[in-house]
From TrEMBL:
Subcellular localization, as worded in the UniProt entry: Membrane
Transmembrane segments: 35-58, 78-96, 108-127, 133-153, 165-184, 196-216, 240-261, 267-288, 300-322, 328-353, 365-387, 393-413
A GO molecular-function annotation: transmembrane transporter activity
Name the UniProt record assigns to this protein: MFS general substrate transporter
Lineage of the species this protein comes from: Eukaryota, Fungi, Dikarya, Ascomycota, Pezizomycotina
Domain Major facilitator superfamily (MFS) profile intervals: 35-457
Membrane topology: Multi-pass membrane protein
Domain of life: Eukaryota
Alphabetical UniProt keywords: Membrane, Transmembrane, Transmembrane helix
Entry similarity comment: Belongs to the major facilitator superfamily. Monocarboxylate porter (TC 2.A.1.13) family.
GO cellular component, one term: membrane
Length: 457
């Protein structure tokens, strides 16, 4: 169905005989099938060859630390490299968002493909630690941002009823990529060396991302529905701030867990190969859970389900990871935590679509990405710094508490959404609109009764 628009005629406050006509676009009906599933597969492949390849850094990190590959480098140096590979992808979010409206999605995807492959190839020829900062850290991050951010903004416009399911399927690429590249990278390093491993990663990413970039396309109606100008006033909206809070806290936990697990395995006496299997098991959990999370979110609430899963991740970290001193228990923890630790990335765009609407989703996602730059940069350095003092205990408590705080932020967002639904119903019934998007209306929606409301939100 083609997009439509309606005209609102405002008569109040105008001189007699004059009217102020405002045209408001209405969202068209997405196809929910057909080429939409091709686009889902393309985003799935892009995530495999961005986040999936990036997850192999945990294996490479463990090899560099145990083998003293770069003698002058410290644990903190390596930790910052891993953080940069994600934070730089998020740092350029607003720029990518703006450029998407100027040069289009495909041009950004192709540029990201070239940068990502070049970063892996450059890392293969690194002889000083600063070479890795530039290649594995900054260049890889820019390439991943140019691929991941535009593709994530395209897919929600192809779906309405199956939006969370499609995003869950696409996001499961991080888990599948993590399984493949954790195990493959460990094997290649042991038999062919880490430089060859980087070259193979470069070739794989080039082929897969090039194919996906050429097949993925934005819907024609997306450009008319979507606002590409960033608006700092969005940061005054409490619902946006709670989304950002959820992202910042869970990223501290997610990055620390994601990169630290292989090294934690060797710290309790396991082998490097067992550490890579633990990392792969975490990604198995992601692969299994993310499509299921999307399906359940569509059925029971796109805010409610992530709230519950984020809280469950905190429980798993505090109750299972801390006493995980054997290989079997560690694998159980890796699988369970993998199912829920990446809930933010699996559900962020459907949550934003619920909170701000499709028209402002992309720009709000860009602002959210920018807010995540600091936590993604320093999460692993903080985790490894805590390891120095008391082993991994403080790191484990830190990760669990971050997920707990994130669930609180999302629970509070759910309260706002419940109030917003009531406000709109009241407005349609002629009882006034209230104020839900300013802190002046805080007491209207932050009551205890909103915390325990049931229903699909």
């Amino acid at each position: 169905m083609a997009s439509r628009s309606i005209e609102i005629v405002q008569l109040h406050g105008q001189p007699k005989g004059l009217t102020n006509v405002e045209t408001i676009p209405l969202e068209d009906t997405p196809p929910n099938g057909g080429y939409a599933w091709v686009c889902t597969f393309c985003v799935f492949m892009i995530i495999i060859h961005t986040w999936g390849i990036n997850s192999a850094w945990g294996v490479i990190l463990d090899h560099f630390i145990t083998d003293s590959t770069f003698p002058k480098a410290t644990r903190i140096d390596y930790a910052f490299i891993g953080g940069l590979s994600i934070s730089q992808a998020l740092l350029i979010g607003p720029l990518v968002h703006k450029a998407q409206g100027v040069v289009g999605t495909r041009a950004l995807l192709l540029l990201g493909t070239l940068l990502l492959s070049a970063s892996m190839l450059g890392a293969a020829y690194a002889y000083e630690i600063w070479h890795l900062f530039l290649s594995q850290g900054i260049c890889f991050g820019f390439g991943m941002g140019l691929l991941y951010i535009p593709s994530m903004s395209v897919l929600p416009h192809w779906f309405s009823s199956h939006r969370s399911l499609a995003m869950g399927i696409a996001a499961s690429g991080a888990g599948i990529g993590g399984i493949i590249y954790n195990l493959a990278t460990s094997y290649i390093i042991q038999h062919l060396g880490w430089r060859t491993a980087y070259k193979i990663l470069a070739g794989c990413s080039l082929g897969a991302n090039l194919m996906s970039s050429l097949l993925l396309k934005a819907r024609k109606s997306q450009n008319t529905q979507q606002t590409y100008a960033l608006d700092p006033r969005d940061l005054k909206r409490p619902e946006v701030l709670f989304v950002i809070f959820w992202g910042m806290t869970t990223e501290f936990g997610y990055i620390a867990l994601f990169y630290s697990l292989p090294n934690y395995a060797t710290s309790i006496g396991l082998t490097a190969n067992q550490g890579s299997v633990a990392g792969a098991m975490l990604n198995v959990g992601m692969t299994v859970a993310r499509p299921l999370v999307g399906y359940v979110s569509d059925r029971f609430g796109r805010i409610t389900v992530p709230t519950i899963l984020t809280a469950f991740c905190s429980v798993v970290c505090l109750a299972i990871w801390i006493p995980a001193n054997s290989y079997a228990v560690l694998l159980v923890f890796a699988f369970l935590s993998g199912m829920v630790c990446g809930t933010f990335w699996a559900t962020i765009t459907p949550v934003l679509a619920e909170v701000v609407g499709l028209g402002r989703m992309s720009r709000t996602f860009a602002i959210t990405c920018l807010a995540l730059v600091v936590p993604t940069t320093v999460a692993e350095p903080v985790a490894l710094s805590l390891v120095k003092g008391s082993g991994y205990l403080h790191t484990q408590i830190f990760v669990g508490c971050m997920f707990l705080l994130g669930s609180w932020g999302l629970w509070t967002l759910r309260c706002w959404k419940c109030f917003d639904i009531e406000r709109k119903a009241s407005y349609e019934g002629g009882f006034g609109a209230g104020r839900s998007s300013t802190f002046l209306g805080f007491l209207n929606w932050m009551g205890l009764q909103k915390l325990f409301l049931t229903g699909r939100v």
